[in-house]
Amino acid sequence: MQKSDNRLFKFPKFQDLIIFEDDNLIVINKPPFVASLDNRSGDEVNILRLAKKYHPDAQVCHRLDKDTSGLLLLAKNPETYRLVSIEFERRRVDKIYHAIISGTHTFANLSVDLPILNQGNKNVSIDRANGKPAETIFNSIRYFRHFTLVECKPITGRMHQIRIHLATQRAAIVGDEMYKGKPVYLSQIKKRGFTMTKGEEEQPIMKRFALHAHQIRFSIEGKEYHFEAPYPKDFATLLKLLEKFDS
């Protein structure tokens, strides 16, 4: 199983993650390498723990994988948590993720409708007989010579849904070793003028899989909300290098 390399990762202040706040909601741009909720041992820093120090009644309304960056909703009171949960359950929350995948893939409203079985211990599989319904719509946004930037719109919210659905299209997210996605190295894309210090081991441009929760749209009691989260530094850097050396 893939592990995040967060030895050099410095946890940010929770206040610095907030992109919107009112009396009921907090919306953050979650950094990578931070879990949304407590793990089983309860011994690592996570968004819920950071949020409760900021606002004692805060609850995480949904979750992102530890390595996934982007928009995360937190309720400041039980009633808001209930209302947001209903929107998710009724599939009325529009979420858009961006992913960088290996290969050139032309997706134009491609619907991948394949049931997912949660096998426990963060393992899932495509299982037409026993899996729960899962659908994701994919659109290619930007093409490079060896990679594609893709918009992913999950209709359902199964664990690892975007990741495994892309893998079924032979379009694994770069760096997603669990689904056979390979990391991107500068030496791969910069053919000329690439040098390294002798004895130094080259590190991938991104030390995680390239998936970012980019937009979210929903309404609570007639009030519309729409948020967009900028790419974190590692995702933006990979795109910039692809533009420079793989266009």
TrEMBL record:
Example of a GO MF term: catalytic activity, acting on RNA
InterPro entries linked to this entry: PsdUridine_synth_cat_dom_sf, PsdUridine_synth_RluA-like_CS, PsdUridine_synth_RsuA/RluA, RluA_PseudoU_synthase
BP-aspect Gene Ontology terms: enzyme-directed rRNA pseudouridine synthesis
CDD domains given in the database record: PseudoU_synth_RluA_like
Pseudouridine synthase RsuA/RluA-like domain mapped to chain residues: 24-167
SUPFAM superfamilies in the cross-refs: Pseudouridine synthase (SSF55120)
Signal sequence residues: none
Family: Belongs to the pseudouridine synthase RluA family.
Protein name in UniProt: RluA family pseudouridine synthase
Organism: Sphingobacterium phlebotomi
